[in-house]
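Anyone? Bumping this.
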Amino acid sequence: MEMLKVEKTFETRELSVNMGPQHPATHGVLRLVLDIDGETVVKVTPHVGYLHRGIEKLGESLSYFQALPLTDRMDYVSAMSNNIGYCVAVEKLFGIEATERAKFIRTIVGEMSRIANHLLWLATHALDIGAMTVFLYCFREREWLLDLFEMICGARLTVTYPRIGGVRNDVPQEFLDSLYKFTDEFPSRILEYETLIDQNRIWLKRTKGIGVISAEEAINWGLTGATLRGSGVLYDVRKHTPYDAYDKVDFDIPIGTEGDTYDRYRCRMLELRQSNRIIRQCIEKLPPGPIMADAPKFTLPPKDYVLKDMEHLIHQFILITKGPTVPEGEIYVATEVPKGELGFYFVSDGTGKPYRMRVRAPSFVHASVLPRLCVGHLVADVIANIGTIDIVLGECDR
Amino acid sequence: MAVILERIEYSPYKKLEPLEIAEKIKEKFPLEAVDVISFRDQVSVIVKRDQIVPICKYLHDDPHLSLDHLQDLTAVDYSGKKDVRFEVVYNLYSIRHRHMIRLKAQVPESDPRINTVTSVWVGANWHERECFDMFGIVFNGHPDLRRILMPEDWEGHPLRKDYPLKGPEKEWSGYVQVVELAKKLKEFEWAG
């Protein structure tokens, strides 16, 4: 019997695959249309906007005090940092400055939120790539931090704790004690995560040489935060234009050399240690004093007084509904949030509401670089690339 | 491969004051610069829109300025407040020299067009798409000018001042579709 001859070889053709918006590895509602040739990605088209709530438009219709809770809803993973970014920007526009104690408290909670964010990032990034165990370890420490947030303001995620000109209330001593204990234990916990994945052969294969972007290109794309520093660029808003108490504490900026997924991972792991250092120093140096700036025209009166006497109640009412009288002008203020550079651009026309409120969201810029990172890699690496740029779609879509 | 920790000194490079940068722009493009506004140590230079790409290229490439980082690109609707309705705002920063400047290009309502700066900063791509989506400003030569945050068949540009805060009267077609489908599917519900 004769062998059957294969007359026709298999044809290959490009295929468009839809990924998301409801996909567990896209960290929210990101939709990617992948054009693939076999296993190789040829083209990526991201679609964003599924979580668009019009925060910029809403901000223009609210007074400066009313718009603060909106910022929690942008990056809900690290809401505290967003609040701080908003407050720092509005304070600069008003021309006031927070008190020394408030600045230190803000630095503490800002770094706590950075640790909480990086832990969630590490947990989900590792889970996406296939290291399941890290997830639960990270959430153990994240819970500790969220419980501490609950202790100072009653909320775990959407905190709205910082205020324009200071913070809402002073921190209790138990909070500081518990946090100091946390900083004692945390370095050994970081070692635990690193034992699991740092030298893991699968982890190295999945992250080294994936999503490489050079320093010049990363700057040209407008990347910020650890995503930029992984490529070896020294840019950190906390060092370049210090706000709050960052010029009074000692810390280093970790940078990468290769600009790949592994380097960005290493940067964030080292940043965890630096954040831990900053918190320790801030607790040790925490000065006594008031927590709200003495600028009655621009800051809300203390809640105790508002509940007791008429004048303060009227004062609060006017400030919240009508807003303060703000000088005319425009300002762009950036802060370093865990994801990158969060900028607020305000145009004031002299009334109590911003004429234009613009949010420069790091996730938006980082999502735009996805096609550049993914093309030429395998489909499985798309997941690694989404993880490594650390995006939250609530912030991307605003 | 090792990741290094580097300590930053506070003033390693020659930093220019924002007003000095504004002077340089005025010197180089005397016909283009309309106005310079200073507020809280930040300086905005208002320019005409025609030469926006050469201006940006100059700011990016000049070794003394080296404004390599496009922090933000957005627009403002000055409807009724200024003669020219729109201004496209470029917040620029130099990572090497650590100075910043804000460029504002005037775009009239009658012809809301401006050239794209994606050839200078690739990162401007999505910012410009957002501007187009929210303000209806068309960026000439943009590689992929589509709506980005709003649905593709959305009518109007939400961040314009004449756009109502609560949205348009008419429901969005996608929403109407879903509601109609839900009504249709009600027929198959189990009545008891």
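Late reply, but here is one note on the structure posted above: Chain B has one domain: 18-162.
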